[in-house]
Amino acid sequence: MKKEKWISLVTGYSVIYTAVTLLNSVLYLGNGIYEDPSGNWHELDRAIILLIGVAAYELCTNLPVKPLILKYIIAYVPSQLLAFAFVWFTGLREPLAKSAYQDIWVNFTCLFVLLCIVDGVISFRKKKKQVLRDL
Q1: How far apart (Å, rounded) are the C-alpha atoms in residues 18 and 11?
Q2: What's this model's pTM, rounded to 2 decimal places?
Q3: Among 36, 53, 69, 74, which is least packed, fewest CB within 10 Å?
Q4: Average pLDDT over residues 9-19
Q5: Residue 30: Cβ within 10 Å count
Q6: Measuring CA to CA, how many Å separate 29 from each of 14, 24, 78, 98?
Q7: Mean pLDDT over residues 11-25, rounded?
Q8: Nearest CA among 79, 103, 106 for reference residue 91
Q9: Using H for helix, E for strand and C for coil, what is the string for 119-131?
Q10: Which tops the pLDDT comparison, 79 or 34?
């Protein structure tokens, strides 16, 4: 992989992690919670789940599969299963919340769908430019 691609991946990962962490902090503060009850483990868990998501996005953007929806499903299913496995392993460290699997499903799926929409828009624009060039 080229250096520019690595820089792009690390930058994207960092921006998303920062945005999610800031949103989490704002939501906690808005609810009157001034410290993260889960502490540093929660931050590390978020970083690992985001890494799984970024790897899934990278996988789905580079799979040579058509149509796009099939490519997204092929990338989503194993990555979501990996996220569930990670949640299960965190249960060995500390008790899980009753909604842990539902929470990871909702959060992971929402982020994945958002990234797929971005990728779909980029793919659509590339195809549109290619069609215009071919005319």
Answers
A1: 10
A2: 0.75
A3: 69
A4: 88
A5: 8
A6: 22, 9, 34, 23
A7: 87
A8: 103
A9: HHHHHHHHHHHHH
A10: 79
Query: HSE on the CB side for 131, CA within 13 Å?
Result: 6
Residue 125 has pLDDT above 80, yes or no: yes
Q: Quick check: 71 and 65 in contact, CB under 8 A?
A: yes
Cα–Cα distance for residue pair 79/75, rounded to 1 Å: 6
Residue appearing with tokens 């929806």: 69
C-alpha distance from residue 55 to each of 3, 73, 76, 97 (Å)? 17, 14, 10, 26
3-state per-residue secondary structure call for 69-103:
HHHHHHHHHHHHHHHHHHHHHHHHHCCCCCCHHHH
Percentage with pLDDT > 70 across the chain: 99
**Residue 69's pLDDT band (cuts 50, 70, 90):** confident
**Rounded to an integer, what distance in angstroms lies between the CA atom of residue 51 and that of residue 135?**
41
